[in-house]
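Hey,

Quick one before I head out. I ran the complex with zinc ion overnight. Inputs first:
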Amino acid sequence: MKTIIRNAKVMNEDNLSDFYISDGLISAPFSDTADIEFDVMGASLFPGLIDAHCHLREPGYEYKEDIESGTRSAVRGGYTSVCPMPNTSPVCDSPAIVQSIMKIASQKASCNVFPIGAASKGLKGLELSEIGLMKQAGIVAVSDDGLPIKTAAQLRKVMEYASYFDIPVLNHCEDISLAEGAMNEGALATSMGLRGIPELAENIMISRDVLIAEYLNLPIHICHVSTRKGVEIIRDAKRRGVKVTAETCPHYFTLTESACEGYNTYAKMNPPLRTETDRQSIIEGIADSTIDIIVTDHAPHHEDEKILEFSLALNGIIGFETAFSLGYTYLVKPGHVELGRFIDAMTKRPSDILKLNRGTLDIGAPADIVCFDLEHEYKFDARNVLSKSKNTPFDGYDLFGRCILTIVGGKLSYEELC
Ligand SMILES: [Zn+2]
Ligand SMILES: [Zn+2]
C-alpha cells in the first residue's frame, strides 16, 4: 500500500514537496505509482498530534463518550495517538481491563489508543495496582487522575514500583484538604458567593512531588499545571536536575477565572481557571519548555451534568477539536511561542515522556501524519463536534488552523479536503 501526499509544506517549510508513505511507514521518495494520492494544496504537514492526557469514558460512562466517538473527535482535531486516563467504571487497574480497552480500540478506534493504568487499585490510594502486568497488556503510564496520589508515602511506593517497569507516573496535583471549592479562590469567587480553591492546593503538591522525585532520583510528571507558582517550582527543579516533566492544557493559556462569570459551568474545571498572571506564566512556561507538553484533558460530560448550579456541575471540558487551533491562535500567531516548540509540545515531547516512539517524520517511523491549513480562520461551533458531549467554553470562538487530513499508521482517518 503506497500513498503520496502532494504539495505539502513539511514542518511548515516554505517550499512545497511531496510526502511518501509505504506500508504504514514514512518512506523515502519512490517512483512507483501510489495507491492513493492526496493533494493538500500548500497545507502544513506535521507528525500526528499525541494527547498524553484525556478521558474517553469507556468502560462505564458511554453516555458521555466512548472509544469510538472520542477517537473520531480526536482525529478530526489532528490527533493520531491518545492516552486515556483510568478513571472509568470499572477503573482501569488490572490487565483484564487494559486488554478489553485495547480490544475495543483495535476494532473501533480511529487512532492509536495507549491506555494509562491506575496507580492504585480502584484509585483508592491504598493498594498498588499490578503495574508490570498492566504494562504487558499495553499501558504506557500510571496515574490516579481525577484524584491525586494523596500521601507522600504512597507516591514514593508508586514511583519506586513503576520504575522497575520503566513506566512513567503522572500525578494530578491537588491537596484535597485545601480544595473544597468550585472555582479559583479570590475576589471573584467571593463576589459570586462560591467557595474558592486556592492555588496553594496545587502548588503544595507540585512541591512535594518535586522533592520526592529529587530524593529518589526518579521521574515524575505533573499533570495540568495551572499556576504561576507551579511553573516556578518546576523551572527551579529542572535547573537542579530533578527528573520532572509537566503538562498544561489550552484552557490555562487562553482563559482566566473571569470565564466563570455569569456562573458559566462550561468554565468549571479542575484545577480551576486562574488569574491573568497565572495565564501569562503558563505561556512563558511553554515557551521556555518548563512546561514540556500540551494535553487536552478532554473531559466529556452530558448536558445534564453541566447545566446545573455552579457548585454542583461536574468539572471539565472537551478538547480534541480545539486544542491545536487554540495553541496556534493564542501562542504561535501572537509570537509568544515558536511554531517548532508548539509542535514539539504536541508531538515529540509527549512521545518521549511516554516512550511511544512516535511524533517524528523520520523515514521508517509509523506514518502518523496530520495536515493543517494554518491560515484558515473559522468560527468554532460546538454543535458540530464529533464528541458525544458538547461541554466547551470555546463555542463561537474565531480560531486559526484547521485540520484537513489525518493519517494513522498510513491509513486515512480524517479528511476535509475541498
Ligand atoms: Zn486531573
Ligand atoms: Zn484528567
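The chain has a mean pLDDT of 97.

Talk tomorrow,
K.
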